[in-house]
Batch of 3 targets.
Target 1
Amino acid sequence: MKNNTKVLALGLLLAASLPACEKKSTTETATAEEPAAAAVNVPAFNADSAYQFVARQVAFGPRVPNTPAHRACGDYLIKTLTGFGATMQIQAFTAEAYDGTNLDLRNIMAQYNPKASKRILLAAHWDTRHVADKDTQNPTKPIQGANDGASGVGVLLEIARQLQANPLTGDVGVDLMLFDGEDYGQPENAGEYKEDTWCLGSQYWSKNLLPQGYTASYGILLDMVGAKGSRFAQEETSRTYAGDVVEKVWRTAHQIGYSDYFPFQDSPGITDDHTYVIQHANIRMADIIAYYPASPDGFFGPFHHRHTDTMDIIDRNTLKAVGQTVLHVVMTEK
């Protein structure tokens, strides 16, 4: 994904198609810890399990499209989710990258309680950056992507394991979407800027919905959710077009004890998978993404698109905070 200090043309495209959400910061109204939520039957998110799911992906090596590691990791994800009892939807397609390369990509969806009419879409990307374009060492080589790629997927795999052990009942279903080709965007030093070179998988799926005619009540995107010391601010596009989803997620985090990880703080808008899900699929989606305002680029951490994005920075406590929050949102949905 890339920085985007304004929402660009998204507002014009969506003004007539999405219901208006009041754009607000909750900073003024939430200065104290929220009262504890009423007891609900929500299973414990296992951070050790999620950590191992992250490590297993990283063990394949960089998951760059058109490489054996990418193919092998995709096969592993499909096999694992199938083993967790999901109804699988695999969307194979070819996309042209900014440099003219044709990329063989797969979006992977795992559905739970597929006959339910009310659906929640949880998403992450499973590919990794093909270049370390922010690094001074070996900038043309691919990164491991432990945080940027594997962490969000690791959380979703653990949620899938919990959904198999604790089946959803009633008319609420959950769809786990693993987008491909998110991080093959144009580097800043790669010639004249081209539009829409990032998030290739979410662009394709949002214009070619699978299952056909798919919709969801709302969505939550997980991106870079595993690094030690992460804090997740309320990203501008999410606040603008999915304000109620942002409110639900951040309030839940405060209610169950993770306010340190989910401060009521605003962050600038960025181009990420949720951008295209909102724009083309008309699904309100909030982006849970770590925010580092003191970093050189003003948003992403010091290991972003660098070779330091390894298992050394992955923290079980961060995985737990994100995973338990999202699992609580899902399991308490009515």
Target 2
Amino acid sequence: MSRYYSRNRYSSTGLLDRGRSYRSTFDWTPRSRTSLYYREPGCHFDIRDYRTIVELDTDIPEADKEVLRVQKVNFNIAENVKAHHTDKFEITDVMKGDKYMKSQLVVRRGQSFDIEVEFDREFSKEKDDLNLIFEIGKRPLVSKGTSITLTLSDADKPKQWGAKVKSKKDKEIVMTIFTPPDIPIGKWQFKIDSIFKDSDSKKKYRYTHEDPIYMLFNPWCPDDLVFLDDENLRREYVLNDSGKIYSGTAKNIRPKPWNFGQFEDFMLDCCFHLLEQSGLSYKVMGNPVNVSRKISAMTNAPDDGGVLVGNWSGKYAGGTSPLAWSGSVRILEEYWRTLQPVKYGQCWVFSGVVTSIARCLGIPARSVTNFSSAHDTDGSITIDNHWGTDGKPLEEYNSDSVWNFHVWNDVWMARPDLPTGFGGWQAIDATPQETSDGVFCAGPASLEALKNGLVNLPYDGAFIFAEVNADRVHWIHAPDGQTSKQLVKNQVGKSISTKLPIGQRLSGAIGGGDRQDITNQYKYPEKSHQERTAVWRAAQASSLPVDVYDIKDQDVFIDMIEKDDVLVGQPFDVVLKIKNKSAAERTVKATLTARVVHYTGVPAEIVKSESLNIKLEAAAEGKVEMKVDPSDYLGKLVDMCMIRMNLMASIIETKQVHCESDDFRLIKPDIDIKAPDAVNVAEEFSVEAKFINPLPTPLTNCEFTVEGPGLQKPVKVKIASVPSGAEAKLEAQKYTPRRPGDRKLIVSFHSTELSDMSNDVDIIVK
């Protein structure tokens, strides 16, 4: 009589008696055929998974009992994962008491690992042949490199598949397994074929291990394309499960703590599922160029049902506001549970999720914020803004835009598909802005190629180059049909930022914090010969108008200055400084407008506007000031409390025009967190948080979120409405740390009137 069992890491360890004979039938039937499966009560039932169904043969013929049989396989998980830098993955060390999960082996390619196999009798070279089989995918094939058969040898075989006898004692053999540094990542199945060499016929027995081997990229292996030769950088870009994502404006940069959580127990299964859903074949799943491009595609939802739905409308009914997320864990957990895109994300959320996925798979990754980030829609390498002479933007012509900031990712890898010298950091962008090869994705694009204007190298170089180094052209349209223009060469791509790697805080931080400015990795200094050469080189491959740079010198200098440290709810002023550099009188006619703006550059309501007429004598200077009160802007603000100052000025005598746009962000109060500096595993501790409501109106629908990898899975705490000037307080909350190590606890706050607020603290878990 035969029975069928599901073989997966959530099943009990005692379902199969390995002392019996098993005949493997490779029936890759989805789990919708539930009648064929045993299910542990309360265990996770994964309808997406495909497994080998094993037929248990209870009647072993007497003649077959000579065949060597596997009694037990020990993956030496604790020792192997420590050597492979995968011991932070929660599935490698399942907590005691969880009877529905078993510890799993997670290793990195190109690096050997040891396994122990115990047989029912001693292995004999004269009597027995052993084949070790490693397979990946639904249809493993030798020709595709997805089915590998190894025989035992006594030699090391680095950089290739191999199996060496490390030691042998009685019925047990310790084997060292070697893997190449370019094999597909994913879940590999492990099998053993035992063949008894009989004079008449060869009798065969197959053992199929019930748990897969999780195979990852290896930044520690010099022969892996993702090799990163710096331990501090590997600690940050692969092993750090928390970090910061920057937002705001170039003059007011604000860090947002983020829980990447790449070692959570569900994360590897979720990431491998995404790669399988992407349509990427296993044959190329070992190439980080292909994998990172698919990551940028599968993180967004528009054309492939990926992780996140983008929403820039300001209306988030039916989902979560992008401003309310403080980590990737809740997002990916919801996606994995429902297999439906999660609502909603914006650029920093897409970037945070990409960082989590890439680091989980072993690709070094960092989140990158570009301030004054251009969105070039026509491939001209210029950002064209059109204005009327009244100072109002002609929105029907303004398809290009400059975002206050935009967040994407860099991933580290060699690029054998490009000429020598273009490996290292590569930009990828998961925010669905423009399609590439018909899919919403961007990159990987070599930073070295971008810096030098080599935009034709794959992938999407022209679009990403424009984001950091486009020139801005203001076109002013007069009622009589005349058009004048102003070229601005240094307004795009400022203060490109990422979190400083671990161990470099004292030497490379900006302003004493942990922000690293990497602008020089993307572009040469503004207006330098190299930078202008890169722009011209990129322009040769673009639709750049030939006369854009044919602009006369200006003899009136205008500078717009606004404060960058205004607390929301407070007044501010904007100052125009004007200098006449000519030897004759000049008349300046200008319109100065303060306007609420989305961080993507999309304008919202006008806050205040003033028209100015200023006469300046030869070589004279002047100053004009416009004051803005809280009553002018409160009630009009959108998500990130950003205001754009637009200046449109013309010089009557010379027809010179001057256009300038500058954005600033009203700052929000910091959250004060009270938590212990150090705690013990499984020892309860408390957290409190508070801040003062700076608005003249109450805060409603208030909610704190607390989370931290290894400390606390994301939890929401609702509080009552907070009156103006009152304290918003998270009362003492009790949490229990799950794992030891240096941890980050992140507290964020969201309400209808005030959101996008977060802070973090360090906690050592012993």
Target 3
Amino acid sequence: MRYGRVKIEDQIGEILGAKVVILLVGERPGLGQSESLSCYAVYSPRVATTVEADRTCISNIHQGGTPPVEAAAVIVDLAKRMLEQKASGINMSR
């Protein structure tokens, strides 16, 4: 989705009935690292009830930060834990 916002996860998840929605967002030009990605993940999002604290974020994904291959493994592990715990964001246990 071009020019989308993170909150679009809620609509996508609700429409598709998804248990986990993972969104990769490129950083805005002009910030410190314009080639960086961030991952926003949320468990069972709903437009009316999902709040920002329900999201889990992995940021600084780029060659000089968290390398993309390593980030991919972290994201897969995160999705598995979300499904196991039926939670995301501050509701997840470590």
